[in-house]
């Protein structure tokens, strides 16, 4: 081998060693830097989309499907995120075949594309295609700015030469300032930069949305199309005005619009509303989802559903005066601002259980003190406030609910109204009736026909359950009830473990003899179940169920014609055609 060959090989080895040193990047350290740059919220883990961005950036031949499969393999603990240890192990394997130059180039390119600023010179460099960006956007903008500046300077020179702004004595006005070329160019570049152009476009978009919103707000409800009605209702539901609804609010809305849907079905339908996965639903997501749900519903049903939501929201936010105003406006069918004789009669009948004519006339006289058959809201408000002064908020709301007709009311009519008059009057005097959520036999029957899952919790004593039960009901425990002040129902309900039985139910129905114990247990169970499922008391209890033809069975599951009314004085409430086989033992004399 000659001297020149030896020298050439030595020089090549020296260059190779220098290149190797130049590209000698610590791979673990570099990958950690990328991990923390991708971990935008500093949670210590990165999610699938971030990992896909990383994988396809480091291995450009990898398809997105391959990257997703790779993510599943990398996510060892199956929590849908990748922590630093999982990430390092996988990335070191993935980049093993990359040369040092390729590795450094891709690391720096990835870091340049993340949101976090990377200032360490070991990792930072300008993205690819910066020259193209400069040539495509920056240079034309500067050139345009310079041309505009020259036109402005020339226009200013001509204006000054003409003396247009000079005063009558030939002096320059005190507020006159010459054009400052650099300031002019800087302001032009800023105002016409990509950021400012996007900002102006966004401002224009928001202004257009505000104008459109103002336009539909000025329309009457009946003039709005379906989308506008839903946007209007969204704004009413969004009480804090943050532009988004949480999941519980959406379940409430869905159930109000379409009461036939069970809780779980409503939750399933709403789970895809949140398109961006932020845990909230914005107005567009809400409108598009509800329009899809209601696309096969006729216009009358759609409008009724939206009005039901609006009324429910309005009622929830209203004070007592506003709720009375809702009643007044509902009764004022001709929107005259006064209740005429026919409207007064309807209101009086609604206020008098059983419709006794004498009481109805007295009620009309009480409402229309001056007898002119024209009652304004101010006249209406006074006696109504006086009459409801002794009611707590729950009792007041229950009374107002009764006065609202079916269309657009906040809640369904009181099921006690479907019971025989004496039975209904007895049930409604329970303190719990005005405070807990209730359900009637008709509604239970309707839900059963719709194949909804109903979990029945039997809140009666063992002696009562020994006579008969509703099939598949779950016993609450050793319930003892003497009076509302002397009972252990709430204690038993608070300690009962019924969560497994209630799992997946559309509604939990508490059942007692005539509704007393169930009314106490229902709110306790609702709190215990943390609102995961709606808990209601069956109005009239198992007696109402039995009277309506509901099946009851004995301890072995065999149908029986017997039901325990709870107390002797309630035996007369059992009116089923077939004779009740249960008899109280004769009292000893």
UniProtKB/TrEMBL annotation:
Query: Could you tell me which Gene3D superfamilies the record lists for this protein?
Result: EF-hand (1.10.238.10), Rhodanese-like domain (3.40.250.10)
What InterPro entries has UniProt attached to this entry? EF-hand-dom_pair (IPR011992), EF_Hand_1_Ca_BS (IPR018247), EF_hand_dom (IPR002048), Rhodanese-like_dom (IPR001763), Rhodanese-like_dom_sf (IPR036873)
Superkingdom field: Eukaryota
Q: Where is the EF-hand domain?
A: 26-61, 62-97, 225-260, 273-296, 319-354
The answer to whether UniProt assigns keyword Metal-binding to this entry is yes
* Domain annotation Rhodanese: ranges: 450-554
Give an example GO molecular function.
calcium ion binding
Record key words, sorted: Calcium, Metal-binding, Repeat
This one is known as: Calmodulin
Protein's organism = Micromonas pusilla
Query: Taxonomic lineage per UniProt?
Result: Eukaryota, Viridiplantae, Chlorophyta, Mamiellophyceae, Mamiellales
């Amino acid at each position: 081998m000659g001297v020149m060959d030896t020298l050439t090989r030595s020089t090549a080895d020296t260059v190779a060693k220098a290149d190797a040193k130049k590209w000698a990047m610590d791979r673990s350290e570099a990958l950690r830097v990328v991990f923390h740059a991708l971990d935008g919220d500093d949670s210590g883990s990165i999610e699938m989309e971030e990992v896909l961005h990383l994988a396809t950036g480091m291995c450009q031949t990898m398809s997105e499907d391959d990257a997703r499969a790779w993510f599943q393999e990398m996510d060892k603990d199956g929590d849908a995120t990748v922590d630093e240890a999982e990430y390092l192990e996988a990335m070191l394997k993935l980049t093993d075949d990359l040369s040092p130059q390729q590795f450094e180039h891709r690391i720096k390119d990835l870091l340049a594309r993340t949101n976090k600023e990377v200032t360490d010179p070991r990792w930072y460099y300008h993205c690819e295609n910066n020259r193209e960006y400069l040539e495509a956007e920056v240079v034309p903008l500067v050139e345009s700015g310079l041309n505009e500046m020259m036109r402005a300077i020339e226009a200013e020179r001509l204006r000054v030469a003409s003396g247009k702004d000079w005063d009558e004595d030939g002096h320059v006005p005190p507020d006159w300032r010459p054009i400052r070329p650099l300031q002019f160019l800087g302001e032009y570049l800023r105002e016409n930069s990509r950021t400012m152009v996007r900002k102006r476009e966004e401002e224009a978009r928001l202004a257009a949305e505000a104008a459109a919103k103002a336009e539909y707000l000025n329309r009457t409800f009946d003039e709005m199309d379906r989308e506008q009605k839903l946007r209007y209702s969204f704004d009413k539901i969004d009480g804090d005005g943050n532009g988004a609804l949480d999941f519980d609010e959406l379940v409430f809305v869905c159930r109000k619009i379409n009461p036939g849907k069970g809780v779980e079905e409503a939750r399933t339908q709403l789970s895809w509303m949140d398109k961006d996965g932020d845990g909230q639903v914005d107005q567009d997501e809400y409108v598009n989802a509800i329009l899809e749900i209601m696309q096969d519903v006729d216009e009358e049903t759609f409008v009724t559903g939206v009005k039901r939501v609006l009324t429910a929201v309005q009622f929830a936010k209203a004070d007592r005066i506003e709720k009375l105003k809702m009643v007044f406006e509902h009764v004022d069918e001709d929107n005259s601002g006064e209740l005429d004789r026919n409207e007064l009669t309807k209101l009086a009948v609604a206020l008098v259980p059983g419709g006794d004519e004498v009481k109805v006339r007295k009620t009309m006289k009480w409402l229309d003190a001056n007898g002119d058959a024209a009652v304004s809201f101010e006249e209406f408000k006074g006696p109504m406030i006086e009459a409801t002064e002794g009611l707590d908020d729950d009792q007041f709301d229950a009374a107002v609910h009764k006065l609202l007709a079916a269309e657009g009311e906040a809640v369904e009519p009181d099921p006690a109204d479907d019971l025989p008059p004496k039975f209904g009057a007895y049930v409604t005097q329970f303190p719990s009736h005005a405070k807990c959520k209730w359900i009637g036999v008709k509604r239970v029957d309707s839900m059963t026909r719709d194949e909804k899952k109903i979990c029945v919790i039997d809140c009666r004593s063992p002696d009562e359950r020994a006579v008969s039960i509703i099939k598949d009901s779950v016993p609450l425990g050793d319930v003892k009830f003497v009076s509302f002040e002397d009972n252990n129902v709430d204690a038993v309900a608070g300690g009962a473990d019924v969560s497994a039985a209630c799992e997946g139910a559309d509604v939990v129905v508490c059942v007692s003899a005539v509704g007393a114990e169930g009314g106490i247990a229902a709110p306790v169970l609702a709190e215990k179940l943390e609102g995961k499922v709606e808990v209601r008391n069956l109005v009239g209890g198992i007696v109402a169920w039995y009277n309506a033809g509901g099946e009851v069975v004995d301890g072995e599951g065999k149908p029986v014609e017997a039901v325990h009314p709870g107390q002797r004085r309630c035996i007369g409430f059992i009116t089923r055609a077939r004779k009740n086989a249960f008899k109280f033992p004769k009292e000893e004399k």
